[in-house]
Amino acid sequence: MKGITPPLNVEESGGGVMRFSPDEALRLESGGQLNGFEVGYRTYGQLNSDASNAILVCHALTGDQYVASPHPTTGKPGWWIELIGPGKPLDTGRYFIICTNVIGGCMGSTGPSSTDPATGAPYGLTFPVITIGDMVRAQALLVEKLGITTLFAVVGGSMGGMQVLQWTVDYPNRVFSAVCIASAPRHSAQNIALNEVGRQAIMADPDWRGGDYAGLGTRPEKGLAVARMAAHITYLSEAALQRKFGREFQKDGVSWGFDADFQVESYLRHQGASFVDRFDANSYLYITRAMDYFDLAVAHGGVLAEAFRRARQVRFCVLSFTSDWLYPTTESRDIVRALNAAGARVSFVEIESDKGHDAFLLHEPVMEAALSGFVASAAKARGLKS
Amino acid sequence: MKGITPPLNVEESGGGVMRFSPDEALRLESGGQLNGFEVGYRTYGQLNSDASNAILVCHALTGDQYVASPHPTTGKPGWWIELIGPGKPLDTGRYFIICTNVIGGCMGSTGPSSTDPATGAPYGLTFPVITIGDMVRAQALLVEKLGITTLFAVVGGSMGGMQVLQWTVDYPNRVFSAVCIASAPRHSAQNIALNEVGRQAIMADPDWRGGDYAGLGTRPEKGLAVARMAAHITYLSEAALQRKFGREFQKDGVSWGFDADFQVESYLRHQGASFVDRFDANSYLYITRAMDYFDLAVAHGGVLAEAFRRARQVRFCVLSFTSDWLYPTTESRDIVRALNAAGARVSFVEIESDKGHDAFLLHEPVMEAALSGFVASAAKARGLKS
After folding, report:
1. Which of A7, A260, A366, B333 would you label with A377, given CA atoms 20 to 30 Å apart?
2. What range does the domain containing B242 cover?
3. A200, A222, A241, A357: best mutation site toward chain B, by most B Cβ within 10 Å?
């Protein structure tokens, strides 16, 4: 991470918060609905005259719509600036990029920290449990409002990849191509367990106050920081941790105490402490829950290929990383096998990397080349002018 | 775990708490010392007339001396009853088995919950930071008190394996053979990071009270439970979690909330909740710290083979499990390579198992056979009557 000049953010961007009127309710899989919901989003580049060049980028658990512009709280560059910008794989000179904050999030889209119109108070735990399907349904409504019938591409990694797959299953005729990176067709037992640890850490913090902290003026920062620290380890490979930190000590070596003696401890603490400035603890609960409930096959008799049956004409690209143990290649292969069985067109690349799950957010030349090639080929098939 | 009748505990056992007088201080690597320390221990079987049949078993992070007899708090059978007993690989009809609670622990050995003789109050965080070397030094003093000059074998898994290696480095002439299972010659960056998450979870609990909870009548149970849950995931392989739980729901399926919907969540919560009944939070801090500081090579110019140079005549057995990602086979291979370079005799078996790190505590026929074979061969070399 050190010594790398952050790339410039994309200058030409738009977006804000799309407000849906109370009669445009968002139906939820749980059976409930959200009335008068909002979707925070950013756009980059220009929509062409026939609205055929739109790419929806879907963010991961703790991501947001600031995919290629500075984060309003941290000031850091967009989280996928490696991939998005002029001349980048998702070329803002050519494509109209949309990124929305997911429903349940805390960056402008309606979530547990939003005000419940029925009570005038923050939802807290009265917010309905949402699913990946609900996130996608909200995105589809936004995309429609933007005047786009068919997305040229839907692209995402990790939980973003789940949304990509859900798009192709729920709206197969509104997606031309789909890129699913470092993701899975269902959440594994290990990943449910890891999410549960994060939730328990948050709920163990007395400042969480049964989820009502917003109204009571507290913040479960310690619990949320522990959740982030635990999760952060899973984003890296053992090799990456060893390479970056090894057993290197901070400054003066052994303290014979519980200070952050080792650099890896200091790094983790920093990850935890900085995360709480930009993220809401209840959003963490709701979004991890949506991931746990994710199982594309379940509504199709447990047969994943059946889920993709209607998505046969979508062009798929599936990417995974060798050292990703959170969403290992086996899970991407499950997607590819099901797509093959469904008769869909799919490119699959397992990328050699020692950076773990995090690789999808970093400068990975093979990922960038694979994405560029796939998008160029899809653009040609779509008849987009270069 | 279901459907297996727990094996009987070993009937013939002894032990208790060995009290060392104030003039028998335990010198510590940190520079301090413990005056009037105690060591909790259990023994099984009979020491023979020339005290040549003693096997020291070393426990892991949350283990204790109840290796083959019921736990006094939980009533559960000894944690290594698969390996220890009449006719078992560590045959109590033939060997005299000793297991001590580590210094820093909470089952009878002096640790942070013990009373500081200088103040009459529990040590809490005034307890000195201890190391694997300190644990071993306390064991060596106990073994001497029991009239044993040379141990026939030292055996342990995980942190127990670290103690085994430390024994051969610090007391090469007092160890005839050594069995190191699912362990490492140094704690990796990933494992330091995982331990740090557990410590942060404990210290985030307001009931921890800066470590003074014992005197203040609170217990950081929520923090300790979260630490245990996070750690427990690392003890299992992804495959084991998938096989045991998959995405199976509890009773009635989706609750659309934050109850333990999935069986894996319920299991983890149970692991956390039951752990706090038998373990002390400060001991968790101190023992994880000892693991983090563990790096056998560091006192030998960073060359592991140098650490083993004086242990050349010890007979080593190193075992690892294919699906153990906490202490992967690569780390056992590092031990084996260093032992080879040092000219020591070593048997190494990587055991095919999908049970993860936990495998060393379970019924693993290949492990049992390897251990039996190694111990029998060592007994023959030692001239022990069969």
Report:
1. A7
2. 192-287
3. A200
